[in-house]
Amino acid sequence: MGGETIVAVGQMCSTSSMEHNLSQVQILVSKAVAAGAKALFLPEASDWISHSGEETLTLVRSVEDSLYVCGLQKLAKENKLAITAGIHEPGEKGSGKVKNTAIWLSERGEIVERYQKLHMFDMELTNGPHAHEGDIIEEGMEIHPPFRTQVGIVGLLICFDLRFPEVPLSLKRQGAQIITYPSAFTVPTGKAHWEILLRARAIETQSYVIAAAQAGYHNDVRVSYGHSMVVSPWGEIVAEVGGDFNGPEIATASIDLSEVNRLRKEVPLKRRTDVYPEL
């Protein structure tokens, strides 16, 4: 697949109200359609962000019963727009946990792919965020192969997965041209590592990296860094939303897959799998 295609990366501030979050997405969809985008990329946990683990368990719904997901499907179908979003799903029966997943909706509103987050945000910084995502989120157990979409061959990842290069390298080996990181980065870790890691993942995989981000204050205890962006295979930021949240916003970029193919041909990153294992 070659040629240029416009994509939109969306930035929002999810709360515990799915109705409110869906209203934000409606604004983002309108902006994406007006810009001529073929796909809209939404952040991690775009369906809701809770105050606590206890509230998390009261909010989670299956995709069939989720007002938010059903609303996304309707928007995708009505606007003939592919949408990818980070959502929550019930965990395995008896686990007491939920799944942090990314879904891809086709322009017909069908869920054609889903990925469950592999790496948990467990962190105890002395002067920074304390998080124990693994207490309530169930770990994914597999790397999902890249899949064909109207904007290119896509590999789905989520937020904290950004810190582990092994997985995107595997996706690149399997043919991914675009790698996604729907995210809700904290402000301290965002300032320190967000841009650096996104650009590194793009450079080492020679892929477009698209990272939709949560931004602003979700409640009285949680705030996200923002700075949704699209990074080219050369590591250049080709689209970005800022860090301040003044309402749902998008940035658009023209994806040229011939650049992916050209770069991989001109700068072949030949891995020494005779020395170290193939990923």
Automatic annotation (TrEMBL):
Pfam families: CN_hydrolase. CDD domains: nit. One of its GO terms (molecular function) is hydrolase activity, acting on carbon-nitrogen (but not peptide) bonds, in linear amides. The keyword Hydrolase applies. Keywords: Hydrolase. Coiled coil: none annotated. Residues 5-257 form the CN hydrolase domain. This is CN hydrolase domain-containing protein. It comes from Cadophora malorum.
